[in-house]
Design a protein that fits this description.
With about 475 residues, the protein is an alpha+beta fold. Helices cover about 30% and strands about 20% of the residues. The protein has 11 helices and 19 strands. Strands 2-6-5-8-7 form a 5-stranded antiparallel beta sheet, with no helix packed on it. Helix 7 packs antiparallel against helix 10. The longest helix is centred in the N-terminal third of the chain and has 35 residues. Bound molecules: adenosine-5'-triphosphate. The site of adenosine-5'-triphosphate (ATP) has 22 residues, from strand 9, strand 11 and strand 13. It is a single-pass type I membrane protein. GO terms for molecular function: ATP binding; transforming growth factor beta receptor activity. Keywords: ATP-binding, Kinase, Magnesium, Membrane, Metal-binding, Nucleotide-binding, Receptor, Serine/threonine-protein kinase, Signal, Transferase, Transmembrane, Transmembrane helix. Its main location: membrane.
């Protein structure tokens, strides 16, 4: 597409949004757009004030029918976006209707404010008393019910893994029925344990260190969440040849095979995405509850084969064999993480899902944040895969109106088996990402989906969203667009 005269847009971006600097020559606070006639503005509401986040040429090259930059609310009004098609039109934001302008100032009188303050203080005192009473109640409840499930799986709580003590299972009680998966290190069986259907991951003696690494993660305190496959215990065959990890059984198998065999409507896709990002957000959290502590954990091998789909259509993370327990805020470090050991693990993970910094070997392994942000890149690819199999995102919109056949990230561009060299060139040097269908821009939720993806697979780890943020945005999407 060419334009008779290049569009000029106001330019103001934070350093982490440097991608915008690449879409046109910048001179001072003006940018000359290379191949779009659209200017864009993003604003965030902080402490009741509208703050500029981005003013630049629009990188998404979407249509921009308006001459002035009309506000569009995003994420429950937390982000405001505007797109327009005249020179420097993004210098100012306009409000389509007076009434839509957010109340950023608080026009209350001093008297009103004093009254409100007095009511608030009173309410806070009452709330404080109620919280103290509730805490006492929950503490005594938790003591009584320490081993009870937080989970929605219907699997009976077989043992308490809340504390650090390990969960030894007598292998004589386990019945192995059929093999459901082979990994590089273990064979996974469907089986029965005390009347419940379970998955049993069997490690040969030679992979004992892999078994121990994964067991260590599952046995961390508070590692119970609906978005993390439920750990039931470990065992050892009497002959000592095999080590076993017993897990909740996921009826639909891996997300990889689920997406190959099924398409989903919008709400089911959103459910997969929400549970996946909530599971990762929990894994990435440092949680203290009374005297137990769950440290931050980076998964480090997030892929469609390491996410399971349960009978209720939600995802659960599994395969923590490459995971790293990260230095806690108190400075105490659980898993050995001396630099030499970590360097040898610089390129853990599944090639296709490796983040640019992991592919290039430039990731800072000593930095907690970096390892978690590498997981975020893989999460973005998984969200893209889920949405590419969502029937409501293609209905009557794509040329054929049918959901494309299942494709892995970069499969259409680089083929079914990628090499590291081709990925480094494509993902790191050319900064390319999986193609987002153009017609999504015309769907009510399309621009939000695109923003979540582009903000999560950014080349700069620091610019990527956190898993908590993605989970929040997906929850906001549910209330906005419940097709
Ligand atoms: N809880 C479960 N419920 C159902 N199927 C499962 C479960 N856990 C694992 N599987 C199946 O077993 C396969 C291998 O499991 P997993 O990825 O944990 O093994 P691994 O040897 O650690 O694999 P990798 O080579 O990726 O490290 C999975 O891809 C999946 O098909």
């Amino acid at each position: 597409q060419s334009f008779p005269q290049k569009r000029q847009c106001a330019f103001q971006v934070a350093p982490q949004n440097k991608i915008y600097a690449t879409v046109g020559n910048v001179s001072g606070s003006v940018q000359l757009c290379e191949n779009t006639e659209c200017c864009v503005g993003y604003y965030v509401v902080i402490d009741g004030q509208l703050k500029v986040d981005v003013r630049a040429c629009d990188i998404a090259e979407k249509s921009c029918p308006d001459a002035t930059c009309k506000a569009q609310m995003r994420f429950n009004g937390r982000v405001i976006k505007c797109v327009c098609n005249t020179d420097l039109c993004n210098s100012n934001i306009t409000w389509p209707l007076e009434s839509e302008e957010p109340q950023l100032a608080y026009p209350y009188s001093r008297g009103d404010m004093m009254k409100t303050a007095a009511i608030l203080i009173g309410a806070l005192i009452i709330l404080g008393l109620m919280i103290t009473a509730a805490k006492r109640l929950s503490l005594s409840k938790e003591r009584n019910e320490d081993s009870h499930s937080l989970d929605d799986s219907g699997v009976p709580p077989l043992c308490s893994c809340q504390a650090t003590r390990s969960c030894e299972i007598d292998v004589a009680d386990i019945e192995l029925e059929q093999i459901v998966g082979h990994g590089n290190f273990a064979t996974v069986w469907k089986g029965k344990y005390q009347g419940s259907v379970v998955a049993v991951k069997v490690f040969p003696a030679g992979w004992k260190h892999k078994f121990a690494a994964e067991k260590e993660i599952y046995e961390l305190p508070l590692m119970k969440h609906a978005g993390i496959v439920r750990f039931l215990g470990t065992g050892r065959k009497p002959d000592g040849d095999n080590w076993l990890i017993v897990l909740q059984y996921a009826e639909y198998g891996t997300l990889h095979s689920f997406l190959r065999d099924n398409t989903s409507n919008w709400m089911s896709s959103l459910k997969l995405c929400q549970s996946l990002s909530q599971g990762l957000a929990y894994l990435h959290s440092d949680i203290r509850r009374h005297d137990v502590h769950k440290p931050y954990v980076a998964h480090r091998d997030l892929s469609g084969s390491n996410v399971l789909v349960k009978a209720d259509g939600t995802c659960a993370l599994c395969d923590f064999g490459c995971s790293t327990i990260l230095r806690s805020s108190s400075g105490h470090c659980y898993r050995q993480n001396d630099t030499a050991n970590m360097e040898s693990h610089a390129q853990l993970g599944t090639l296709r899902y490796m983040s640019p910094e992991v592919l290039e070997g430039s990731i800072n392994l000593k930095n907690t944040w970096s390892l978690m942000q590498a997981d975020m890149y893989a999460l973005a690819l998984l969200l893209w895969e889920i949405w590419m199999r969502c029937s409501d995102l293609f209905k009557g919109m794509s040329p054929s109106g049918v959901v494309p056949k299942r494709l892995l990230p970069y499969e259409s561009e680089l083929g079914a088996s990628v090499t590291k060299e081709s990925l480094v060139l494509y993902v790191c040097h050319m900064e390319k990402r999986p193609v987002i269908p153009q017609h999504w821009q015309l769907l009510p939720q399309g621009p939000d989906l695109e923003e979540i993806l582009t903000d999560s697979w950014d080349v700069e780890p620091d610019a990527r969203l956190t898993a908590h943020c993605v989970a929040d945005r997906l929850v906001a999407l549910q209330s906005c667009y419940s097709i």
